[in-house]
């Protein structure tokens, strides 16, 4: 959107100078190309329809408590989808995020860690998840392994480690301050939502306003071109996975606080929800193109579907079917939009 | 010789910004080896694609055995009996010889391949080519280039091909393998199969060819030339056309690059199997051109100098500072820039805007602590693209809308933003139409006049001779001649190329 406002600052005479090629090239522009804008508008339309459905089929959809619940439900997957957006734009995939959450939550809640109090627990979660991301990143960028394989291995072994440490038992959080993370509210909105919003803003700035963000797009769009332009492709790839790990840390803290336990079963299959949201948001699975706003909208759409189904007392299986259908339809629409803008 | 098999008339094919074929005629008779000659960019590869059904012509007619046909797709061309053997052989390395030969048309019983029959048939086809020694059960990935080529030919025979197009088949072969290839071709033509043979090596064409068609700038400029008796001079002048010479900017007389300081020094650079003992220097304000055939190691040298490949031996110095081998970032930081051969796959980020592509290498200059000063970046990108007269001038457009010439300008613009001292250009005018070529030439000369050292690689000899101050002639990975550009001519360069392959 900001890109758009910048277009206006270009003198019209210069940007519209009559050239023979001009008509042919007025197809799409910039990162917020028509294709991306259409994507986001499409998601907003879907969200509008869902809200309409929600308000017609239920009495309490628009109640503040329900909307707040919806947002806090979206927070955890939302935070994950931010890291996932970086990873997928860079041309990779991270299937290990759910397992990293489990390991971070378990490690942060062991008896020994809890001795160090709130800050010790937060620090542990961040370091554990960050190191898991670093291991993924180094194996992929410097070891030359495919991200799908490395993170499948991570998915298995990080969760295995979590089970080993916890002995398969949930670990109750005894530090008082920790539970407060999930219960504190400002102005009627839970702290979890503020954490989510802060991560979105930081992620957006990092992706759209820094050299690193630009490098992520370049590496995902054409890694060889990026390398030959003097960009450190391997470092960029590594950092992207560390970011994903740090997002897991935040998600693990949120989840552990909400459930007041650390458990090796935490975050099961969260990777699929995060990936689905990112794809729904219009990020190309092949890399090089995508928006963070789209991913967030993707998460909100899925959470709203979830919410409406729960309010209507519909069963989980039907919910899952609806999710699958939404993904397929969204990707089909995406393909059409891409074809048009490529034409 | 005998009857006309294929008759193409007035074939036109345009791509955005490029008129690749602009009225091509081609007549091929049964049982002949028909040579197609032309410089890079003359339209040979587009013509092959039209023949293979991979590209549909915009205008023109194609007759096959006297009947008008339209080649709707690769399958249609195959069905008529036209097979194409590309330079990058399109075989599946993980499958066996027999499986590759029958890929897509396996003899089957309710979906199960009849493997024994397939192997038997494969053996018979290979024997027909005089190479029964190739085991049909062997995995193709283990074969040499020459054997892979034979598998491709056997594949063509299995499809009952009556016309086989070979795109520079000798480029991937060693000298002794080429005579083997010629024996196979003779065998095929004896069986009435026509061959369209593409090669840059005139001596080969003399040996194996019957007739020659010459393409230039997308047009047929000569047909029905006897391959054995047409003078080399005549072929070369048809291929190059002297009108191009005027496209080159004048060298600044008196600027005497000798007085300039040495910017780039390359010493004893070698890479196993690619090039050996390459040493040269480039001064500020000087354009040094490397002339060499495909496979002579020219692009590899450029990439190694740039650090994109690691040399076995040798070193590269920029302004007296030795660069760490195999480190692109160090080279870029020291002031080097590369405009690679394949712009789309090696230089451009397709979904990004023109401005973002231009600023890619210099982004750090428009950023503080990693935070991009976007107005500054945008202004710089616009300034440099305006100076290069890049079209369209709206740099927010995605880079993929650019024509070949403008893509090249965008890549050069990238290095102007980094204030690069030495610019490496790999095939700077490939896929660029004639008008834009002259613009690129002028731009390169301007850069040199501003003190930049330019190292140029091109397969178009006139381009190397016309643009450079000094020329290095490369043959099979070695520099065989170094000369001021105005003291060597095209025939001499061609001689230097050919000498080796005739031996």
Could you provide a short overview of the structure?
Chain B: Keywords: ATP-binding, Cell membrane, Membrane, Nucleotide-binding, Repeat, Translocase, Transport. The complex is a heterodimer of chains A (343) and B (503). Chain A is mostly helical.
Write the layout of secondary structure elements.
The complex is a heterodimer of chains A (343) and B (503).
Chain A: H1 2-7, H2 12-15, H3 22-25, H4 34-57, H5 64-89, H6 97-108, H7 111-114, H8 117-141, H9 147-166, E1 171-172, H10 176-183, E2 185-186, E3 189-190, H11 191-209, H12 211-221, H13 223-228, H14 233-259, E4 261-262, H15 270-280, H16 292-311, H17 316-342
Antiparallel strand pairs in A: 1-4, 2-3
Helix pairs in contact in A: 4-16, 4-17, 5-11, 5-12, 5-14, 5-15, 5-16, 6-8, 6-9, 6-14, 8-9, 8-14, 10-14, 11-12, 12-14, 15-16, 16-17
Chain B: E1 4-15, E2 18-29, E3 33-37, H1 44-52, E4 59-64, E5 67-69, H2 74-80, E6 82-85, H3 97-101, E7 108-109, E8 112-113, H4 115-128, H5 145-158, E9 163-167, H6 175-190, E10 194-198, H7 202-208, E11 211-216, E12 219-226, H8 232-240, E13 262-271, E14 275-283, E15 287-291, H9 298-306, E16 313-318, E17 321-322, H10 328-334, E18 336-339, H11 343-346, H12 354-359, E19 367-368, E20 371-372, H13 374-387, H14 404-417, E21 422-426, H15 434-449, E22 453-458, H16 461-467, E23 470-475, E24 478-484, H17 490-502
Parallel strand pairs in B: 3-10, 3-11, 6-9, 9-10, 15-22, 15-23, 18-21, 21-22
Antiparallel strand pairs in B: 1-2, 1-4, 4-5, 7-8, 11-12, 13-14, 13-16, 16-17, 19-20, 23-24
Helix pairs in contact in B: 4-5, 13-14
Protein name (chain B): Monosaccharide ABC transporter ATP-binding protein, CUT2 family (TC 3.A.1.2.-)
Keywords (chain B): ATP-binding, Cell membrane, Membrane, Nucleotide-binding, Repeat, Translocase, Transport
Domain ABC transporter (chain B): 6-242, 258-501
